[in-house]
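Subject: N-(5'-phosphoribosyl)anthranilate isomerase

B.,
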Amino acid sequence: MPPLIKICGLSTPEAVDAAIEQGAAYIGLVHYEPSPRHVDLRTAAELRRRAGAHVKVVLLLVNASQQLTGQALAAVWPDVVQFHGTETPEWLGVVKRLVPAEIWKAIGLKDAGTLERIEKYRGIADRILFDAPASALPGGNGARFDWSLLANHRHTIDWGIAGGLTPDNVAAAIAATRAPLVDVSSGVESAPGVKDLDRIAAFCAAVRAAQ
Ligand SMILES: O=C(O)c1ccccc1NCC(=O)[C@H](O)[C@H](O)COP(=O)(O)O
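Prediction pasted inline below.
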């Protein structure tokens, strides 16, 4: 079975529709003001309504305060909350107990030590999203990590990969990691924050064709 697809950083109804038409399982809405993909809560709620039950909606937060987290969850009612900062397992546990959403934790994968450190999220995070280490932004930088780090790793938590994936390299990333989920943002854009509908289609086709 091909990996599940998450298209992240959507900000328009057209991009939401394209992701659904092309078979994405998840769409990501980034609520983080420094990002070129930031959507305010009103827009996020509108996009969430448009997505309906056709696709699962992932709300991305980065070290958000308790107050902002509450406001964002109440406005968007996401299927998944993706924490993309330095949030602790304890904080994820608090949110998990309060909202009927999956909890994902993004981790910048630097070296084998990172793989040991993520164990603290076991039993709390429903999925670990391995991404390139933070640089200009905590995520969405279009940078890859070393896929070979995952080649022989025995995963104890559901997982997926992100970071610098494109229609041209996603098949190689799947072959190298056997990831059950692939996530893309910059690789399906024509400019930062501007999704390219043809590239969304090409990415999804490449995932479906991957061995
Ligand atoms: O996309 C952003 O702008 C962003 C900003 C801050 C935190 C997370 C962000 N994106 C999270 C994602 O899940 C991206 O899809 C992931 O980092 C991969 O991005 P890319 O390398 O651009 O494909």
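The chain has a mean pLDDT of 97.

T.
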